[in-house]
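Sequence in, structure out.
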Amino acid sequence: MDLAVSARNARSAARSAFPALNRAVVDAVRAAGSSRLVVVGGAGSLEVAPGRSW
């Protein structure tokens, strides 16, 4: 594997599970022999103006 991409919805009720999920993704990437992981996210929760989300 050359590259892994991880993208998850941070608004889910399982937000408390993110640390364990992130660790599992990193472990899987390492086990696959890759050293590159791209994490995509965050833009959907940005507030571009008071009370106005992206």
